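Q: I'm building a small set of examples for a reading group on sequence design. Run inverse folding on the following structure and report the sequence directly after it, with nothing in between.
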């Protein structure tokens, strides 16, 4: 099917364009903030009846998480997928030397953003004397919200497309807007998996439902680290599976070509750590339970 004629710019306010991708970040952070506030205010789902943060602490945390997402996402993209951006800081000329910081030009990594957010959470927990695993359990359930909006924005932008396919729902990521932007269609005029929509469904909607059931029905917040582990395991497995239909973001060494992708390699530590956190939380009694 042909790719819809989406405009990456939602609206322009004078010389400043508001892009769908920026709106996805705003929506993800805003709704995530709201949902985390709801979790922090619901005393009954925590044990022994005390959420890990106050509303004031949560408001401060959101700022650090936003910085972690943006800086980690961009620096991680350059590290994992385009290390030449670091070299350009020293060898580039003029404005191109600062391409690493030109986030509007495209290029963000989820795994880099995850590292940035993790560092922000660790720093905040240590500074505020908060249980690190419980703080992670507060943040983890809201992440799929941002993932859903981010992947939908990827689809609207016609980027991060899937591999060539013959399935009836294959999409030709080529329209007049893309052609005018690049002078050609980077994805070619061939049907491809709409992998962005697959990721929005698995990493976004399905993972959100699983974590929501874990929080509200299974009361897993009483076992610190369980929800964090469930998120890491769920995302890691989803991403590893979807990498089989997603066009690789970067070329792997010849010895690994066709066997694994960078996304798979970066998801493996998430799967291992997530499984360990679940095992650790499951093998221990709920916080506050009688021993």
């Amino acid at each position: 099917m042909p790719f819809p004629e989406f405009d990456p710019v939602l609206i322009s306010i004078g010389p400043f364009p508001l892009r769908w991708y920026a709106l996805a970040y705003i929506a993800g952070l805003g709704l995530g903030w709201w949902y985390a506030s709801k979790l922090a205010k619901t005393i009954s789902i925590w044990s022994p009846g005390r959420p890990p943060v106050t509303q004031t602490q949560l408001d401060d945390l959101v700022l650090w998480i936003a910085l972690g997402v943006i800086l980690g996402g961009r620096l991680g993209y350059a590290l994992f997928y385009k290390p030449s951006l670091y070299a350009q800081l020293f060898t580039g000329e003029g404005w191109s030397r600062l391409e690493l910081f030109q986030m509007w030009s495209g290029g963000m990594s989820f795994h880099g953003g995850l590292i940035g957010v993790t560092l922000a959470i660790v720093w905040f927990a240590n500074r505020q004397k908060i249980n690190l695993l419980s703080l992670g359990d507060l943040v983890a359930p809201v992440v799929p919200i941002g993932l859903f909006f981010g992947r939908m924005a990827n689809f609207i932008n016609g980027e991060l497309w899937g591999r060539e396919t013959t399935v009836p729902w294959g999409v030709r990521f080529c329209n007049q807007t893309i052609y005018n932007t690049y002078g050609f269609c980077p994805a070619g005029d061939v049907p491809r998996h709409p992998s962005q929509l697959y990721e929005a469904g698995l990493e976004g909607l399905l993972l959100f439902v699983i974590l929501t059931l874990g929080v509200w029905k299974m009361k897993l917040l009483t076992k610190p680290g369980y929800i964090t582990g469930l998120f890491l395991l769920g995302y890691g497995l989803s991403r590893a599976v979807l990498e089989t239909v997603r066009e690789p973001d970067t070329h792997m060494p010849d010895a690994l070509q066709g066997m694994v992708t960078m996304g798979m390699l970066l998801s493996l530590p998430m799967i291992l750590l997530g499984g360990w956190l679940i095992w650790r939380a499951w093998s221990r009694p709920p916080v506050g339970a009688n021993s």
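Residues 223 and 283 are 9 Å apart (CA to CA).
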